[in-house]
Amino acid sequence: MSVLSGRCGQLFGIGLSLLLVQGIIGSLPAQAAQPETIIINLDEAHIEHLPDRVATIVLGNPLIADATLQSGAVLVVTGKGYGETNLLALDRAGQIILYKTVRVMGPGTQDIVVVYKGVERETYSCSPNCQRRITLGDSPAYFSANLTEGTARTGQAQGAVQPR
Asked: Is the torsion defined by CA of 24, 27, 28, 30 positive or negative?
């Protein structure tokens, strides 16, 4: 009988200790919440609806992401380079009313094929046939050739449309 009451006393003491610890932990101030993360693929856009009162938008690193404010408190965030940066929205008094992390990842499509020729890298979009694709990190000669071709095509298309 004394062994049983001894064990019950130990269990009671442990239970009381747990209740006290839980009470102490529950009364501590909550830690600042981690900012929400916006995950975007490279060269893709994300729509973010802003709270009222936004006066200023700040991006930590514009080489990673770009943001354009549209009417109706709509923000378009575009992935520009790999990595992570922050996005802040401030009111007229300079108070932070929105804080988010922006993470830009590699291309998210399943049709991307990357070809390595030694240290040279080329990227292709293969849906349904493989075509050259400009992707950050490709070899400079490959990237420049594709960019020049794309720019020339855009210029030709714009020149073909005659204003009335």
From this structure: positive
- For the chain, the C-alpha Rg in angstroms (whole number) is 28
Residue 98 bridge partners (DSSP): 89
Q: Where are the domains of the chain?
A: 36-105, 112-152
H or E, element range at 45: strand 45-49
Each residue of 28-80: pLDDT tens digit? 334 455 679 999 988 889 999 998 889 999 999 999 999 998 888 899 999 99
In 3D space, the residue among 102, 101, 125, 127 whose CA is nearest the CA of residue 115 turns out to be: 125
> In which residue are the tokens 């349904």 written?
128
Quick one: tokens of 158? 């714009």
User: For position 120, what pLDDT does the model report?
Assistant: 93
This prediction's pTM: 0.60
Alpha helices in 2-53 (DSSP H): 2-27
| Fold assignment, 36-105 | Immunoglobulin-like (2.60.40)
Q: Return the pLDDT at 110.
A: 75
